[in-house]
Amino acid sequence: MNKITIIFTLLIISVLAGDATSQESKPAVQSLAFIAGCWEINAPARKRLVSEQWMIPVGDAMLGMSRTLRDGKLSGFEYMRIVQNDTGVHYFAKPSGNKDETAFKLIKWSANEAIFENPSHDFPQRIIYRLNSPDSLLARIEGAMNGKVTGMDFPMTRAKCV
């Protein structure tokens, strides 16, 4: 073999090894740090304010909470957490009015997106967080409702944490 063939062969091997490594990588809570911070949907015309706050990932967990105000009064809230354990990364949601929390498993992630899924849950079956810009986070829920596949978007902007 000449030098060029050897170099080319080594280059191909290193690229293939890098692809295999990236495909086998396991998700980590730290990969979801883009969600951390304070976010809100301010809809004055509807007299509605939705606030969501996530703590930075520490100890293989992120803690979050949200609240919805209608006409200045609390109309709903939710406690959330994202936890990493031996079976993967899971999103747990406990909305006001629910006795138990619901778990969703992280099924897909990238530097600015996380998709969690629980096919056996009534609605939603999927929760998506996508960072569109440093000051724009889209939360989306999807699933079957009344026999029809539907989705709801929650476009949030970065807010001051108070």
Structure report:
This protein has 162 residues and is mostly beta strands. Helices cover 14% and strands 54% of the residues. The protein contains 1 helix and 10 strands. The chain has one helix spanning 3-24; strands spanning 37-43, 48-54, 61-70, 73-85, 88-95, 102-110, 113-117, 126-133, 136-145, 148-158. The chain has a 10-stranded antiparallel barrel. A hairpin with a 6-residue loop joins strand 5 and strand 6 (102-110). The model is unreliable at 5-24 (pLDDT under 50).
Q: What oligomeric assembly is this protein in?
A: single chain
Rg (C-alpha, Å): 20 Å
N- to C-terminal separation?
Answer: 66 Å
Strand content: over 45%
Helix content: 10-25%
Kindly report the spatial arrangement of strands forming the biggest sheet. 1-2-3-4-5-6-7-8-9-10
Spatial shape? globular
Q: How is the biggest beta sheet arranged? A: 10 strands, antiparallel, barrel
Q: What is the helix tally?
A: 1
H/E element sequence: HEEEEEEEEEE
Short description:
The chain is mainly beta.
SSE inventory with pairings:
Blueprint: H1 3-24, E1 37-43, E2 48-54, E3 61-70, E4 73-85, E5 88-95, E6 102-110, E7 113-117, E8 126-133, E9 136-145, E10 148-158
Antiparallel strand pairs: 1-2, 1-10, 2-3, 3-4, 4-5, 5-6, 6-7, 7-8, 8-9, 9-10
